[in-house]
Write a structure and sequence with these properties.
The complex is a heterotrimer of chains A (529), B (306) and C (363).
Chain A (H helix, E strand, L loop, with lengths): L16 E10 L2 E11 L3 E6 L6 H8 L7 E6 L2 E3 L4 H6 L2 E4 L11 H7 L7 H14 L15 H13 L5 E5 L7 H16 L3 E6 L2 H7 L2 E6 L2 E6 L6 H9 L17 E10 L9 E9 L3 E5 L6 H9 L10 E3 L2 E2 L5 H6 L2 E4 L14 H9 L6 E2 L2 E2 L1 H15 L15 H13 L5 E5 L7 H16 L3 E5 L3 H7 L2 E6 L2 E2 L3 E2 L5 H8 L4 H6 L12
Parallel strand pairs in A: 3-8, 3-9, 6-7, 7-8, 13-20, 13-21, 16-19, 19-20
Antiparallel strand pairs in A: 1-2, 1-4, 4-5, 9-10, 11-12, 11-14, 14-15, 17-18, 21-22, 21-23
Chain B lengths: L2 H28 L7 H19 L2 H25 L4 H20 L24 H6 L3 H19 L1 H11 L1 H6 L4 H27 L11 H11 L4 H24 L5 H23 L19
Helix pairs in contact in B: 1-6, 1-9, 1-10, 1-11, 2-3, 2-4, 2-9, 2-10, 3-4, 3-9, 6-7, 6-11, 10-11, 10-12, 11-12
Chain C lengths: L1 E6 L5 H25 L4 H10 L5 H26 L7 H18 L9 H27 L3 H21 L34 H18 L1 H11 L1 H7 L3 H28 L10 H11 L4 H25 L4 H22 E6 L11
Antiparallel strand pairs in C: 1-2
Helix pairs in contact in C: 1-2, 1-13, 2-12, 3-7, 3-8, 3-10, 3-11, 3-12, 4-5, 4-6, 4-10, 4-11, 5-6, 5-10, 7-8, 7-12, 8-9, 11-12, 11-13, 12-13
The chains are: A alpha/beta (529), B mainly alpha (306), C mainly alpha (363).
Chain lengths: 529, 306, 363
C-alpha cells in the first residue's frame, strides 16, 4: 500500500472532512462498519467498492441524508453534526446523485432553485445559473422541462446545481455510468478544473481505468469495511479489483463450439411510436442475430433501448407481424406468451417489479414466465410442485444463495436475484434470448456467472441479444456490436473492430463513417473485474 | 330581481361548496397525496358546522367548527397514509365511511332545528346596482372566501418558493427527499389544508345553502369535487371554471324539474352524477394521447429510509 | 425521538393473522370510550352489541341473513382490490341486480308462471349487476377514466332508477301509493332453509361463492394473474397478463356477485322491490373485504362479524337507546384499525433518536 502523502496530497495540511469510525446499522445488517476517511482540498479522492459495499451509505451520511449509528464527521478538525442535506450544503458540501434528484415536470431553473437554499430571488438565481453554466462550459436551457432532456443534459443540471453552491467538497456518485466516453472526457475536464480551484472531490466509481486516470487517492470499501487507502496510479486495475472483490475473479470463456449458423432472431425495419409521451421513437431498426452468436447493443440509457426491449418481448405489439421474426415465425403481432411459446425468453433490466413481483415467492416468480411454455399449468390449475422444482433447479445450477427454500423475491440480494431471473429463462433452453443490462448493479462474482451462462447458451446454438450500457461487458461477451442513438440502431460491427472511441462516437450520435474517421486510439479492453 | 340574475346567484351558491372542497383537494393532490375522503370530511364539516352555529348563534364560529372537523378527519387520514404508509385509496374510503357515520351521530340531535342563514354582504349603492349588484356585492362570506381561496392557491403554487417545493414533492418524493425536503411534513400540511377546505365546503351547506341539517346532505358533492380536480388538470383556474359549470348543471336540472317537462324527476336529479361520469370520460379521452398530467407521485406511498 | 417505519425483508405471516384481531380489539376499546361519552355503560353496551345476538337462535339466523349479501359482495370486491382495481360502486351494482331480477317478478306477478322464474331472476340479477359494473370498467379501459369516481357516481344513478321504477311503472296498484312493487309470488321467492326463521338458500350460495373463490385464487392461473396484476403491474405485463382484460373481468365478476346478492335479497328476506333494500351493504362490504384480508375464508368470518354489528346495533338501539349511526362509526373505525395493522405486515415500527441541530451556525 502506498502512503497517500507520497502522492500529490500534502500531508502537512489538515483534512477538510474526516469520517471517524462511521458505522451505520439497518436492523441486523451493518452497511458501514467503522469507516475512517480523510478528504483534502485540491484532491480527487476515489471511493471504490462493489455494489453493496457501503459507498452510497457513506456518502449519504456525509451529505446529511443518513444519520450514522456510531462515529462522527469532522469538518476542518471540528465535530460536525448534520441534521439534513441543507445543513451539509450550508457547510459547502454538495452532491451529484447517481439516480438524479431531479423533478421531471419542472423546468431546469426550478430544479436548480430547489437545490439551493432560496435566499436569492428567482431572477438572480437564473442569472447566476446562466453565468455558471457558461463558465464551466455546461450549456443548459433554463426554461425547458427536465423530461425533455437527454441523460447527459440531466446530469449537467445536477452538476451546475452543485457548482452554484460554490462547494468546498463535491461528491459525485458514479457520474460516468450514464455518459458516452466522450461525454465522460468532458466531465473530467470540469473535474480537473474544480480540483485546481482548490476544492475537494469525492468520486465514486467502479470503473478502475477512470479512477487511475483521474484520482489522487483511492479508498476501497468491501462489505461495509474500509479495506485500504492507496494511490490508484501506483496500482494495477487487477490489484484494485482484487481489493474490491476480495478474491480473484475467474475470466469468462467462450465455448469452443460456437459457430454462427442461421439467423434465429430477425428485426425488420421496426419503426414504433412510444406509448409513453416521454419515450423514444424507434426508427427503422433492422438487425439479425444468428444461432451461436451474441449481439451486443450499446448506447447511453434513454436512446430507445427500453422501447426496443418491449417491442421484442411483446409487452408491446409491433406495428407489423414481420417486424420481429423468431426462428422463422413472424412474431411482431404475437403476445409475450406466444413469443415464449416460439422459444424466446426475455430478461428485463429492472429486477424488482419487472423481472419479478418483489413481494411474491420465487416459485410464483418462476410461474411468472414459466406459465407460457412449460408444464406448470394444467387446465388452468397451477402445479405448485413443478414451480418449486424450477426454483430448486435454478438454485442449484446458478448458485442462488437465499435464506430458505422459497423466499420472497425482494429478500434476495441483487446478484442472487439476477442469477435466479437469468437462470429461470436459461433453464428453458430458449432458442432466442433477449437480455437487458444483464449484470447492472450485480457483484463481480454473480456477474461472471451470468456472463458465462450467456456464453454457454450461445455456445449451444441459441441466439443471444444483449442490451448493455457497460462497454466492458459487451467487449467480454459479444461477437458483434451495434449502438442505439435517438431510436436508431447503427450497423453492427465485429467486436474486434469495435474500439471504445468508435463506439463512443456512435453513442454520441456520429454516423458510422464519422466514427470510422476518428477511430483507433484505444482498443476496448476488459478490466478484469 | 330578474330571472337571469336569480339563476346566476343560485348557480354560484350551488358551486361554492364544490369549489371550496375541490380547491383544498387540488393542493393535497399537488403534494402527491390522493385523499378520497372528501365526502366524509364535507359531511362532518356540515354536521359540526351546524352544531357550532346552533350552539353559538354565529355563522362564523360555525364555519370554524366545520373547518376544525375537516382538519380532524384529515389528520386521521394523514396518520394512516403518511405515518403508517397505508394505501391512500383504502384509507380515503375508510375516511368517508367514518365521516358519514360520525356526522349522523353528531347531527342526529340537530335534525329539525333551524338557524339564521349566513348574512349576505350589503354595500349601499353597489349592492343595489342592477343585474350585477347582488351577484358581485351581495353574496355571503363563503362565496367570497372560495374565490379568494382559489386565487391564493394559484399565487401560492406558481409564485412562491413554498409552492414550488409543494409541486416538487408531488412530482418526485424521492428527489425531494434526497435534497433534504421533509416530504411527509409537507404532505401533512397539505392534507390538513385540504381537510379544512372540505370541512368549510361542507359547512356552507347547512349554514348558507339551507338553514338546517339533514343526514347525508352532501349527497355525493365530495366525490364530484374529486372529479373536478381531475377535470381541472390540477390547475386552479380550470378548477373554478369546472365548479361553476357543475353548479350550472345542478341548477338547470332543478329549474327543468320545476317546469315539469314530463321528464321523470329522478332522471333530472341523476344529471349531475351522469355529467360527472361523462366529463371524466371526455377529459380522459382527450388526454389519452398527451399522457397524464397528474402529479407524478400521486397516490404512491413514500417511506423515507434513514 | 421519532417513530419511523422500516421495511421488513419478508411479509410477517404472524402479523398477517394477528392483524384483524388486533384491529378488532382496538376498535372495541375505542367503542367503549364512545359509549362512555354517550353516557352508557361500556360493558353493558358491548354485551348488547356483541354477545346478546349470539345467545338466541333467531338473532343467530338474522346474522346469517345479513352476512349473506355482505360476503357475496365482498368476495367480488376482494378480486378487484387484489388486482388493484377500485370498484367502490358495489352498492349500485347490488341495486341494479335487484332491479333487473325484479323485472321478471313484476311481469309474472299474478300469472301462473312456472318454477323457471326464480332461476331466471337470479341470472338476470347477476347479469344486471355485471353490466352495470362494466360501465365504469369500459370507461377505464377505453378512455382511462378513473373507475373510483365513475363507479361511485353510478350508485346514485342506480338508486334513482330504482326510485323511478317503484314510484312509477312498477308500483303496486294495490299498495296505497307506497313506493313498492307488489309482493313477489312464491315462484319468484328464494325459499327459506328451515321452517322458522328467515335464513334462506342465499346463504348456501354465499358459501359456494366463498369455496369457488378460494380455489380460484389459490390454485388457478387466473387467480395468480389477479394477484400479480395487483402486486406488480409491470411484471404482470411481462408475464403476458393484460391488465385491461383483468379490469373487465374483475368488474364483471364483482358486479355479477353484487347483482346476485341484490336479487337474492329482494327475492328472499325482503320479498318486494322498494327503496332502502340495502342498509349500505355495498359500502359495508368494502370493510368486510379488507377485514377479511382479501381472502375468501377471511371474508366469510369478517362478513359474519359485521353482520353481528348490524344486529347488535339494532338491539342496542332498542334496549339502550344507542343511536343506530354508531354502527356506521364502529365500522369506519374498524376499517381504519384494520388498515393500520396491515401496515405492520410489511413494516416494522422503530423508535429512533433524531439528530440534534448542528451546534454551529452556518459556515
Amino acid at each position: 500500500m502506498v502512503n497517500p502523502a507520497s502522492a500529490s496530497s500534502p500531508s502537512a495540511r489538515a483534512p477538510l472532512l474526516q469520517t471517524i469510525g462511521i458505522s451505520k446499522r439497518y436492523g441486523s445488517f451493518l452497511a458501514n462498519d467503522s469507516v475512517d476517511l480523510d478528504l483534502y482540498t485540491g484532491e480527487i479522492h476515489a471511493l471504490l467498492g462493489e455494489n453493496g459495499a457501503g459507498k452510497s451509505t457513506l456518502v449519504k451520511t456525509m451529505y446529511g441524508l443518513i444519520q450514522p449509528s456510531a462515529g462522527e464527521l469532522r469538518f476542518l478538525g471540528e465535530k460536525l453534526e448534520l441534521s439534513g442535506p441543507s445543513d451539509a450544503r450550508a457547510r459547502g458540501i454538495a452532491m451529484v446523485f447517481q439516480h438524479f434528484s431531479l423533478f421531471d415536470n419542472l423546468t431546469v431553473a426550478e430544479n436548480v432553485a430547489l437545490g439551493l437554499d432560496g435566499s436569492e430571488s428567482f431572477a438572480a438565481m437564473s442569472a447566476r445559473l446562466a453565468q455558471v453554466s457558461r463558465d464551466y462550459g455546461l450549456p443548459l436551457d433554463p426554461n425547458r422541462e427536465v423530461w425533455r432532456l437527454s441523460v447527459g443534459e440531466r446530469q449537467r443540471i445536477e452538476i451546475v446545481r452543485a457548482l452554484m453552491q460554490n462547494p468546498k467538497l463535491l461528491i459525485l456518485d458514479e457520474p460516468t455510468a450514464v455518459l458516452t466516453p466522450q461525454e465522460a472526457d468532458q466531465l473530467f475536464t470540469v473535474l480537473f478544473r474544480l480540483k485546481s480551484e482548490g476544492r475537494a472531490l469525492l468520486y465514486i466509481s467502479h470503473k478502475l481505468d477512470e479512477v487511475k486516470r483521474l484520482c489522487d487517492t483511492a479508498t476501497i470499501l468491501r462489505g461495509g469495511k474500509k479495506i485500504s487507502t492507496c494511490d490508484p496510479r501506483q496500482e494495477t486495475a487487477a490489484s484494485l479489483a482484487r481489493m474490491m472483490v476480495g478474491a480473484e475473479i475467474g475470466e469468462v470463456k467462450a465455448t469452443s463450439a460456437r459457430a454462427s449458423t442461421v439467423p434465429r432472431l430477425l428485426i425488420n425495419d421496426l419503426s414504433f411510436e412510444p406509448d409513453d409521451p416521454h419515450g423514444v421513437y424507434l426508427k427503422g431498426i433492422s438487425v439479425e442475430v444468428k444461432g451461436g452468436e451474441i449481439l451486443g447493443i450499446a448506447g447511453v440509457a434513454g436512446n430507445g433501448q427500453d422501447e426496443l426491449f418491449s417491442a421484442l418481448s411483446g409487452e408491446r405489439i409491433a406495428p407489423h407481424e414481420d417486424n420481429v421474426i423468431i426462428d422463422g415465425h413472424a412474431a411482431g403481432h404475437l403476445s409475450v406468451t406466444d413469443r415464449r411459446k416460439l422459444g424466446a425468453a426475455f430478461v428485463p433490466e429492472e429486477r424488482l417489479g419487472h423481472g419479478t413481483a418483489p413481494r411474491m415467492k420465487l416459485s410464483e416468480n418462476a410461474l411468472l414466465t414459466g406459465h407460457a411454455a412449460s408444464d406448470m399449468v394444467h387446465h388452468g390449475f397451477v402445479d405448485k410442485p413443478k414451480t418449486l422444482e424450477t426454483v430448486d433447479k435454478t438454485t442449484k445450477t446458478f448458485d442462488v444463495r437465499k435464506a430458505k427454500r422459497d423466499p420472497e423475491a425482494a429478500s434476495l440480494s441483487g446478484g442472487n436475484l439476477q442469477k435466479f431471473i437469468v437462470g429461470r429463462e436459461i433453464l428453458r433452453e430458449p432458442g432466442v434470448l433477449i437480455v437487458s443490462q444483464p449484470t447492472w448493479g450485480v457483484d463481480a462474482g454473480a456477474a461472471a456467472v451470468i456472463r458465462q451462462a450467456l456464453l454457454d447458451l450461445s455456445g449451444r446454438g441459441s441466439a443471444v441479444l444483449v442490451i448493455s450500457q457497460d462497454l466492458d461487458e459487451l467487449a467480454e461477451i459479444a461477437d458483434r456490436m451495434a449502438v442505439m442513438f435517438h431510436g436508431h440502431l447503427s450497423e453492427p460491427i465485429a467486436a474486434a473492430d469495435a474500439t471504445r472511441e468508435k463506439l463512443g462516437l456512435l453513442m454520441g450520435g456520429a454516423s458510422p463513417a464519422q466514427a470510422e474517421a476518428g477511430r483507433d486510439r484505444e482498443a476496448v479492453h476488459a478490466i478484469g473485474a | 330581481m330578474g330571472l337571469l340574475e336569480a339563476i346566476i346567484i343560485s348557480v354560484i351558491a350551488a358551486s361554492t361548496p364544490l369549489l371550496l372542497a375541490a380547491a383544498g383537494e387540488l393542493v393535497v393532490e399537488r403534494s402527491g397525496v390522493l385523499n378520497l375522503g372528501s365526502e366524509g370530511m364535507m359531511i362532518m364539516g356540515a354536521a359540526c358546522g351546524f352544531a357550532g352555529a346552533w350552539l353559538t348563534g354565529s355563522t362564523f364560529i360555525g364555519a370554524l367548527f366545520g373547518i376544525a372537523a375537516g382538519c380532524a378527519l384529515s389528520l386521521v387520514f394523514a396518520t394512516l397514509t403518511l405515518g403508517l404508509a397505508v394505501n391512500q385509496v383504502a384509507a380515503g374510503l375508510a375516511l368517508t365511511i367514518l365521516g358519514v357515520g360520525l356526522s349522523g351521530l353528531i347531527g342526529a340531535g340537530f335534525v329539525g332545528e333551524k338557524i339564521t342563514p349566513a348574512p349576505h354582504l350589503y354595500l349601499p349603492g353597489l349592492t343595489d346596482l342592477p343585474v350585477v349588484g347582488k351577484i358581485l356585492f351581495g353574496q355571503d362570506g363563503f362565496v367570497y372566501a372560495s374565490v379568494v381561496l382559489v386565487a391564493a392557491i394559484w399565487w401560492f403554487l406558481y409564485r412562491t418558493r413554498a409552492g414550488l417545493v409543494l409541486r416538487a414533492v408531488g412530482d418526485s418524493h424521492t428527489s425531494a427527499h434526497a435534497l433534504g425536503y421533509p416530504v411527509l411534513k409537507i404532505r401533512l400540511l397539505a392534507v390538513l389544508f385540504g381537510g379544512g377546505c372540505a370541512g368549510l365546503g361542507g359547512a356552507f351547506l347547512p349554514l348558507a345553502y339551507t338553514p338546517f341539517f339533514i343526514p347525508g346532505m352532501t349527497a355525493g358533492r365530495g366525490w364530484i369535487a374529486l372529479a373536478l380536480v381531475v377535470f381541472s388538470s390540477w390547475m386552479p383556474g380550470r378548477l373554478a371554471a369546472g365548479a361553476y359549470l357543475f353548479g350550472a348543471v345542478t341548477i338547470l336540472q332543478l329549474h327543468a324539474q320545476a317546469f315539469g317537462l314530463g321528464i321523470p324527476s329522478q332522471l333530472m336529479t341523476a344529471l349531475p352524477y351522469l355529467a360527472t361520469v361523462i366529463v371524466l370520460v371526455l377529459i380522459s379521452r382527450a388526454r389519452g394521447s398527451a399522457g397524464s398530467v397528474a402529479p407524478a407521485s400521486l397516490g404512491i406511498v413514500f417511506v423515507p429510509d434513514r | 425521538m421519532q417513530l419511523v417505519l422500516e421495511k421488513r425483508a419478508e411479509r410477517s405471516t404472524k402479523i398477517a393473522i394477528a392483524s384483524p384481531l388486533i384491529a378488532i380489539a382496538l376498535t372495541l376499546v375505542t367503542m367503549s370510550i364512545l359509549f362512555a361519552i354517550l353516557g352508557k355503560n361500556p360493558i353493558a353496551a358491548l354485551i348488547v352489541y356483541f354477545v346478546e345476538p349470539l345467545t338466541d337462535s333467531f338473532t343467530l339466523m338474522e346474522i346469517a341473513v345479513k352476512a349473506t349479501p355482505l360476503v357475496m359482495i365482498a368476495v367480488g370486491l376482494s378480486l378487484c382490490y387484489l388486482a388493484n382495481v377500485w370498484n367502490i360502486g358495489a352498492e349500485g351494482q347490488f341495486i341494479m341486480g335487484a332491479v333487473c331480477g325484479s323485472y321478471l317478478a313484476v311481469v309474472t306477478n299474478g300469472t301462473d308462471a312456472g318454477p323457471w322464474v326464480l332461476p331466471a331472476m337470479l341470472l338476470m340479477g347477476a347479469a344486471g349487476g355485471a353490466l352495470w359494473a362494466l360501465i365504469p370498467a369500459l370507461c377505464k379501459v377505453k378512455f382511462g377514466a378513473n373507475e373510483i369516481l365513475t363507479s361511485l357516481m353510478l350508485v346514485y344513478v342506480a338508486d334513482l332508477i330504482m326510485d323511478y321504477l317503484v314510484r312509477g311503472p312498477w308500483r303496486d296498484p294495490k299498495g296505497m301509493n307506497f313506493p313498492t312493487t307488489a309482493s313477489f309470488d312464491p315462484v319468484a321467492t328464494v325459499p327459506t332453509l328451515f321452517e322458522t326463521g328467515r335464513i334462506h338458500w342465499g346463504a348456501v350460495v354465499a358459501l359456494i361463492v366463498v369455496a369457488l373463490a378460494t380455489v380460484m385464487l389459490g390454485r388457478t392461473i387466473k387467480g395468480f394473474e389477479i394477484r400479480v396484476v395487483g402486486a406488480a403491474p409491470r411484471a404482470a405485463r411481462f408475464a403476458g397478463f393484460s391488465s385491461n382484460r383483468l379490469v373487465l373481468f374483475t368488474f364483471a365478476i364483482s358486479g355479477a356477485l353484487a347483482g346476485l346478492a341484490g336479487i337474492i335479497e329482494v327475492a328472499g328476506p325482503v320479498g318486494v322491490l322498494q327503496p332502502g333494500i340495502s342498509p349500505g351493504y355495498g359500502f359495508t362490504a368494502i370493510i368486510v373485504a379488507f377485514l377479511g384480508r382479501l381472502n375468501p375464508v377471511g371474508i366469510l368470518i369478517a362478513g359474519l362479524f359485521l353482520a353481528l354489528t348490524f344486529i347488535g346495533g339494532e338491539g342496542a338501539q332498542i334496549s339502550m337507546k344507542i343511536p343506530l349511526d354508531l354502527t356506521k362509526v364502529f365500522q369506519g373505525i374498524l376499517l381504519f384499525y384494520v388498515l393500520a395493522c396491515d401496515s405492520l405486515i410489511l413494516y416494522r415500527i422503530r423508535l429512533i433518536a433524531t439528530a440534534k441541530k448542528a451546534s454551529h451556525g452556518v459556515a
